[in-house]
Amino acid sequence: MPAATSAAVAAAVIAVPAVTGAQAEPPAAAHTTRSSLGERHPAAVCHEVRVPVTVGTGKAHVYGELCRPHRPTRMSGTVQLLVPGSTYNHSYYDMPVGDGRYSYVSRALDDGFSTFNIDRLATGRSTLPPSSEYTLDSGTEAIHQVVTRLRAGQVMNHAFDRIVWVGHSLGSSLAWYQAAKHQDDIDAFVLTGMSHVVRQEEPSDDGPAHDVPFEIRAMDDPKFHGRINDPGYLTTNAGMRRFFYYAPNADPAVIRADERLKDVSTAADADRTGLPPAESPSRAIKAPTLLVVGDKDQYCTAGTCTPRTMLATERPYYSRQADLKAIVVPDTGHAVQLHENAPRTNARILDWIKDAVS
């Protein structure tokens, strides 16, 4: 989804009275347009919304796509908050390729869950503050305010009993910091594409050339030219998205779509691994937690990566109350839900969530 400049986003907010903050108790989200969202999920009621937030950078909004099954089920009172990783936006969880095969949103709706698929602050259709002012605290505080409004029924006038955080990469590590500041926000966590101990990759001919940077300034990328002029916003260089995949198990059409829909990052999005277990913010997580990694991802443990080795490595970083579980997805790289075996991966995740929130 193309990102916008701070000025453009601000203008969009002003154009929607519900998010100007002028009312004493404004609705938390404004219905914009259904665009192709309703066409992608005809068995659900879906809305594009902007949730107003106030963070260190001032008044802003978080863009999200809220979908609920047409027919209420036992699970539809649970909303899955989908939090994408660095240089990704909401398209990660709803990739428009393969007639829904690579859409986690579609599978969750089919299983009766509601979903709120967001662009993190400083990405996509959410507010892009000056990069120098955006911090980890800004990002987590914005999500906390979204969670609060989801529970209070202030997003499209529907209150949710339970909230499950489903994160990918940076969207997973943000959950650690969210729990450290707002421990009671979330009822269960699914943390994909992230761990505290990162496997050191061996040099390979398949890697990017040494003289080709993996990331460049977004303002220098044709996709964002004229729309992002802040040199602190970065994006992946042309052709680099393929390194998020294990090629023998990836659809080239998905990688092309990933390249087309790529988003931005800032210095605040830097890798958050490296703290010793006793100092890790993930220790604050007290809710059931599932780790999901691809066996070809650097966030899978060294040597033979199995659920057992993942748990042995990761358990010291979590509380006992987290009741940590792990899934290692075979023949899969970093973009764990965008490989050919995505349907099976998502089915396993959703089975775990049903048990966790029942």
Your description of this structure?
23% of the residues lie in helices and 18% in strands. The protein contains eight helices and ten strands. It has helices spanning 6-14, 37-40, 104-110, 136-152, 170-181, 252-261, 307-314, 342-357, and strands at 44-55, 58-69, 78-83, 114-118, 162-168, 188-192, 215-217, 234-236, 289-294, 325-329. The chain has an eight-stranded mixed sheet, sandwiched between helices. It has a two-stranded antiparallel ribbon with strand order 7-8. The model is unreliable at 1-28 and 30-34 (pLDDT under 50).
Structural class: alpha/beta
Structure summary, number of beta strands: 10
End-to-end Cα distance: 34 Å
Shape: globular
The portion of residues forming beta strands comes to 15-25%
Summarize the amount of helix as a percent range. 10-25%
Low-confidence stretches: 1-28, 30-34
Largest sheet: 8 strands, mixed
Q: In order across it, which strands form the biggest sheet?
A: 1-2-4-3-5-6-9-10
Mean pLDDT: 88
Give the C-alpha Rg.
19 Å
Number of helices: 8
Write the layout of secondary structure elements.
Blueprint: H1 6-14, H2 37-40, E1 44-55, E2 58-69, E3 78-83, H3 104-110, E4 114-118, H4 136-152, E5 162-168, H5 170-181, E6 188-192, E7 215-217, E8 234-236, H6 252-261, E9 289-294, H7 307-314, E10 325-329, H8 342-357
Parallel strand pairs: 3-4, 3-5, 5-6, 6-9, 9-10
Antiparallel strand pairs: 1-2, 2-4, 7-8
Helix pairs in contact: 4-5
